[in-house]
Amino acid sequence: MAVLRSLREALAALAPGDVLDIVFVAAMIHAVLLWFKGTKAAFVATGIMIFGAFYLLADVAQMHMTVWIFRGLFAVSLVALVVIFQEEIRGFFERLAVWSLGRQGRPAQAPEIEAVVRAVDEFARARIGALIVFKGRDPLRRHLVGGTELDGRISESLLKSLFDPHSQGHDGAAIVDGGRVVRFEAHLPLSKQLDQLRGRGTRHAAALGLSERADALCLVVSEERGSVSLARRGILRTVAPAELEAALAAFRAELAPPGEAAAAGR
Asked: Mind listing the pLDDT tens digit for each residue in 33-70?
């Protein structure tokens, strides 16, 4: 009863500002946990939370020497966190900038998607390797190495020329932003997820690697198997030719402004 009475008194003493403060902090913690989930920093974040729990237990148990050591480690941990999570921190501020500025390219339209599907179908049947990256909302420039700037409207003939086995840049990736190919012959970071990459080549490792770092959709045509795969948010999957157009249309709908997406769905 005494506990309930104390709880009621504490709740009665809360001002509207206190409630907003609690809600805001809870929302921030929830956002941070979602941000870490599924990333390479997830295990480190778990370790930090365990570290913090031990500190709280030591403080409650009045273990003064342990608490003193933990407090000394906190100062070092702040520097370590910046080093460990530098990619995640940079990505967070990039996404915040994109969200706050409202900058968003025009997603690929139906005719452009059809051109990609036709070209990819030919690549698969002829066993021509290809790697096409469809930019999402996240900036990609810092993840790309090399490449040649281009500003060409997506077309079947353009894609065939870029991935012609006799061309110099066919081993690189073509970057699509909206309805245009903005760069080709680009090199992407490689994934280390050996369980997903078993039996697959460098193109698949590059597609999966970029999908782990950004929300782009990466399309791969295997030169050895003639299969088509998609990588998104750290997951690599093989798709049938009939599924490809639907997957690209779904990605387009995800990027489209609300009004445009609603019109497309009717």
From this structure: 665 555 555 666 677 778 778 878 888 888 888 878 87
Residue 48 contacts by C-beta under 8 Å, 6 or more apart in sequence?
77, 81
Answering whether pTM is above 0.90, one says no
d(Cα 202, Cα 173) in Å, to the nearest integer? 11
One-letter amino acid at 153 equals R
Q: Cα 236–239–242 angle (5° rounding)? A: 155
Distance from the first to the final alpha carbon of the chain? 58
Q: What is the dihedral of CA 73, 78, 80, 81, to 10 degrees?
A: 130
Retrieve residue 265's tokens. 């769905």
- Name every residue whose Cβ is closer than 8 Å to that of residue 259 and which is 6 or more positions away in sequence: none
> What DSSP element (H or E) covers 128?
none
pLDDT in tens, 93-117: 666 655 555 555 555 556 788 899 9
The DSSP result for 208-248, as a single string, is HHHHHHSS-EEEEE-TTT--EEEEETTEEEEE-HHHHHHHH
- 196 versus 109: which is more confidently predicted? 196
202 near 190, Cβ under 8 Å?
A: yes
